[in-house]
Amino acid sequence: MTENGSAANGYAHEDVERNGGNSPPPYDGTLTKETEVEEKPQETEEFDPWTVTDLVDKTKPWAELTTSERVQRVLWGYIFRQLLLLGLLYMFICSLDFLSSAFRLLGGKAAGKVFSDSKIFNNPIAGLMIGVLATVLVQSSSTSTSIVVSMVGSNLLSVRIAIPIIMGANIGTSVTNTIVSIGQSGEKNQFRRAFGGATVHDMFNWLCVIFLLPLELASGYLFRLSDAIIKSFHIQTYEEGNVKLLKAITEPFTKFIIKVDTKVITKIALNQTDPDTSLIKTECKKDGINGTVPCKFLFMNVAGKWDDWVIGLVLLLIALFVLCTCLVLIVKILNSIFKGHIAVLLKRFVNADFPGKCGKYGTGYLAILLGALLTILVQSSSIFTSALTPLVGIGVITIERMYPLTLGSNIGTTFTAILASLTQEGDKLSDAMQISMCHLFFNISGIILWYPVPFMRKIPIYLAKQLGNTTAKYRWFAALYLLLAFFALPAFVFGLSVAGWQVLAGIGTPLLVIIIIIVIINILQKKKPEWLPGRLRNWEFLPLCCHSFKPLDRIITKVFRKCKCCSKCSSNDSIESSSDDSTDQHEMYRVKPDV
Fold it and tell me: 296: which DSSP letter?
């Protein structure tokens, strides 16, 4: 009581001094207008982590620089930094090629064995999932598509059966930029934007398959449309169809490290070689010499001593190290570049819309065209979207602008397949061209479905943002998403489809109905909660593990607590999430000491 009394007297004495020596009136428990205004928390503008960062030109004007500062700016800012960025981009692209080669060595034979059993492709769902899994294993939709084209040309598959496999390959190719986005997991909001920008490609591809695969099975519109186009043109073999643009620059270095013979995967799928044949290329052709000569590359000395999977594992570790290192350095250099007037102009140019309603509507279609042209130039949608992912992460490109660029890359990647199909001869030519045209019109149909209507356009972006927000709160969710979306879910559905239509329908239909009901209830909870019974207006009546990742987060945190880096990251995440959840409560209950 004495301490409380002294504290009270101390506060009273301070109030007397503040009031010029006059004692304050006794507190009667009521609030005056002045007190209400003082107690009311100030309204602050809500921060949107998805908006592009405000790029302010903080560079010192040229006229104010000294001679040494001008020399430094020219050498570092205008010459060396740009060359360093180009070198890192070159190594980044090469690391993606190494990553693809590593996955081919690790899973290429398995993919070839899966394709060799052509009977399972009679089930379109099984074909779809094989397309996803095979493309993820070989890290290249071009490789998996070329296998399908060869199987169609060899009469092992019909064009109609091969269409679902092509759709699956379209999904599997988007895994690369999702992996690249994990390289920006060090900063919360950068990771949020990067992961959302990467997964908008996934969401578009999955949504296209969900709607267009049933339509194709019911009507066969892709088969009929491509067949009509092929029959209306007299197509001839074009031997120079495999045009190399970007690969002509990167191949000298990548081939110096490793040479993988992708034709072996195709031969395994066609049952033309032993399934245990090595994928390492040991014999190469040389200009001016008839026959072959031993290949020369870095891994050649261990090619006959180590198994393919061992070399693939070593190459995978090297590729991931180079990829992450280049990505971190690229992000740092981009952050240093995007602080001057060039950054302000680039931001305005990339994210700006043409004036007027028609101009704003047409800007997105121009971005689609630009994405298609740039993908044709680099000859890989994975490289193009992976190069854009860091820019989305640092906030230079919005996810709304990333979306049409991604759609354009889906179209551009089919151009390479069309040129490659023109190299086929005889009866293979028309079938190869038809498969390529099916791939093209599948992507065009998806764009028509998910872009022109503004409401439909927002759905993939909304889903990608939800994934980005979840990943920012629980960073381990990125690995869980990759595991589920590209491995576990396709493998599970593939297993059900192989077991038969009865098993697939008996298990898949109830699960699909439950998912649809949950989605509808979630939408009503946000838009029209009054339409729902009181108990269904939130999910609080369910156990916490059924509507929150917090229990799983606690388990994962305990598992990785021994790792200092992981525990530090986990603790930071928990602090950030708890601070986000409790900010409003602190502002509501902000009080002063009793006097």
Answer: -
Distances (CA, A) of 514 to 507, 519, 528, 547, 572: 11, 9, 20, 15, 35
Residues 6+ apart with CB under 8 A from 117: none
Mean pLDDT of the chain: 77
For residue 531, give the amino acid letter: W
Q: What's the CA gap between 567 and 561, in Å, rounded?
A: 5
Please tell me the distance from the alpha carbon of residue 202 to that of residue 257, in angstroms, as a whole number: 31
What is the structure's pLDDT at 224? 92
Q: How confident is the model at residue 213 (pLDDT cuts 50, 70, 90)?
A: very high
**Upper half-sphere CA count for residue 342 (Cβ side, 13 Å):** 8
What's phi and psi for 284, nearest 5 deg? Answer: -125, 155
Residue of 150, 144, 141 lying closest to 111 (CA atoms): 144
Q: What is the pLDDT of residues 414-451, one digit of tens each?
A: 886 777 677 666 666 777 788 888 989 999 999 999 99
Could you tell me the two tokens for 61? 């004007």
C-beta separation of 117 from 373 below 8 A: no
Compute the C-alpha angle 431/436/440, nearest 5°: 145
E-assigned strands of 407-559? Answer: none
How far is it, in rounded angstroms, from Cα 394 to Cα 196? 12
Q: In angstroms, rounded to a whole number, what is the distance separating the alpha carbons of residues 537 and 520?
A: 12
Q: What is the pLDDT of residue 545?
A: 84
pLDDT level of residue 340 (50, 70, 90 thresholds)? low
**E strand or H helix at 293:** strand 292-294
The confidence score (pLDDT) of residue 426 equals: 60
Q: Where does residue 48 fall: left (phi above 0), alpha (psi -120 to 50 degrees), or beta otherwise?
A: beta
pLDDT tens string 23-53: 455 544 444 444 444 444 444 445 677 876 5
Contact 481, 471 (CB under 8 A): yes
Q: How far, in Å, CA of 235 to CA of 226, rounded? A: 13
Give the tokens for residue 586: 């602190």
In angstroms, the CA 204 to CA 451 distance is 10
Left, alpha or beta for 36 (phi > 0: left; psi -120 to 50: alpha)? alpha
Instruction: Please answer whether residues 303 and 295 qualify as being in contact, where contact means their C-beta atoms are separated by less than 8 angstroms.
Output: no
Is the pLDDT at 470 greater than 70? The verdict is yes
Residues 193, 199: contact at Cβ < 8 Å? no
Question: Residue 394: pLDDT band by 50, 70, 90 thresholds?
Answer: confident
